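Most newcomers find our protein records easier to grasp once they have seen one. A learned vocabulary of local backbone shapes supplies the integers on the structure line. An example says more than a description, so a record of this kind follows:
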Amino acid sequence: MTIAQLNWQLQQTDYSDVVVELAKELDYPALLIELCLERGLKTKEEIEEFLNPSPMLFHDPYLLYDMEKAVTRIFEAIEKAQPILIYGDYDADGITSTTIMYEALETMGAVVDYYLPDRFVDGYGPNVPVFKHYIEKGIELIITVDCGIAAHEPVEFAMAQGVDVIVTDHHEIPEVLPKSYANIHPRHPEGKYPFGDLCGAGVAFKVATALLGEAPIEALDACAIGTVADLVELRDENRTIVKQGLKVLQDTSRVGLMQLLQKLDIKKQEIDEMTIGFMLAPRLNALGRLSDATPGVRLLTTFDSDEADEVIELMMSENEKRQHIVKEISAQALEQVTNLGNPLVNVLALEGWHEGVLGIVASKIVEHTKRPTIILAIQPDKGIAKGSGRSIEAFNLYNALSACGDYLDKFGGHHMAAGMSIDLAQLEDFKIAINEYAEQFRTKIEAPKIIRVQGKVPLKDVTIQMIDQMSLLKPFGTGNEEPIFEIDKLTISDIKQVGADKSHLKLSLSHEETTIHTISFGKGDWAERLTIDLPVNVIGKLAINEWQGNKSPQLQLIDIDTTSRACFDKRASKLREDHLMIQNALYLVNSAKLRDYLAIKISSTSEIMTWEEIKEDTFTTTNKQAMVILECPINRTRVEEVLQYENQLDIHVIAIARDNVMLLGMPTREQIKQVYLFLYQNPNIKPKEQMAEVAEFLKIPINQLKFILRVFFVAKFVTIENGCLIVNQNSKTLDLDTLEIMTQRKEQMWLEKVFIYSNFADLTKWLMNK
């Protein structure tokens, strides 16, 4: 039975002929060449440039539309000492864009200042009141970075005041461009720039290059941070920016970055794109998410270590606060999700949620529910709910919002992400409308997420050398994703839940004489569906683990599958409500009485039968995905027969014991003689009334006494007359061990030992081998 949570799509293109030829020409391993071809690199020259450890692919900045016009105007402002304002944005790309432009202008002797808008006061992009304020202070030229391409009103306001505005941006271009002095954009409709996916920092870097007459290599660390943080495609010029920028970052002269890296205990040689994506960018972003992003520019531009320390402390504090807020809102949102009844689109709203982190929370809920999710902060004083949405590949969120536009005040975004505000009076109707719209995509939304697998590799080929060769493809990111490999025919040799809250999973996987260790973050709950010796196939990303100077291959596990049945350890002494909620399962019990009692209590997608009712074709006709052994079985032969009927269904073992006979054991000869003698000497014992009293007197557990009496009835040693136990004076001498009831007792003890008291790995082996 498959247990994979994702739909693995293996790359099917056959490059074999080309791979052999190119691998020989370039002296690279065939797998590396194949991965290059999958990235759209077709020629020897393209592959060499891509794998070059020191790429220098920088396009002519003057190919950008309006660049010459903008540079001329900036030179004029510098020559005339006209004050220049750089207007940025409050995220990591905006912070680094501002830094690059500010440093270039300052180097040239410009009179320059910068302003980063406050998310909660100014909103996104250029702002008329802010422009008005700075114009009144004497600003004569405004340069926007990472924003402005859709800012018609503020741009035209400034231009009408005689203040030129140069827009540098990379966001979606509107049908009508703002009437600025110059619009510099890599995808300008009248431009001829060969690469359109620069981020804001990348565009600022091109302007700086044009102004300075050469690429400011020392600014590549900031440019790399902006490029990675903004999730633009890491190909073409962006690849050069990040690859070279990481080298600059490893030896940065920025006091703020040096001290931040030290604070985070990041060694120079360890710095890579992951350092930016998971350590630096989130801390820069935290400033603008919660308050003012301006200290981020101060951090990157200061030469004062005390000022750097001050900003770092603020940044660390804001990031911790951001993490706490995200955790709190995520918990509240997940609580709402549990009460929604599994809609196709989650729309979650609450008063008091912090607007600056709603996109992060939406992403977390999408990851948890596999559903498009919109998170809204209710603002009762304004009568609106405002927030962010994140989606999945199967559902275009922007199209959905467009279809439900009548319910929204405003919205914007793209396939996977969007922002919106909605009148509170329309909120409930919007929830209904967007889910009705989603119905046409139900099959796609409910299907497992597709994950693209670059290739299969045998475990024996996974070596440190092979992983080192794959690192030539770095830096990884959007458009150059880290390769995901499938490794088959493995066996689980060790399972560990790790982390303070056991939320992570470590596995050891083996094939013949080779073993690889895996780690999967946030997947600790997978442990309950895995067992030692389970045959599995896995997909994941390969890495090198170093511990105490020793290096070994490691797999960052993404998903796991098995063609064998999976067994789940849910053993318990008492029946719980969650035991009855297993979906699409066939429940197995010992008695018809219990079957009838539970039939209306189990999940509507499941059925319940006794072991004796199961026929050879039952599993085919019921079409269930799992069987649930609710009670500890009492007939070993029947269990083995049923397991042979179907060997692919997952098995959930609850195995509640009716009598716990394993703990009681078989009655001893002394106990049997003791009970018989007592009954002989004490006629007219009333079992219904005196059983507990007799058990206490004889010092025999009451359940054991009941069993001995059942044996006596079967052997006809006793009868009941008028509610009293009477010893049969004419009974025949029997070897009690030959009675079926004694054989059944021994079998029940064995089954309890296996199903309840054994190590689950041993139980799994037994179930698998039937």
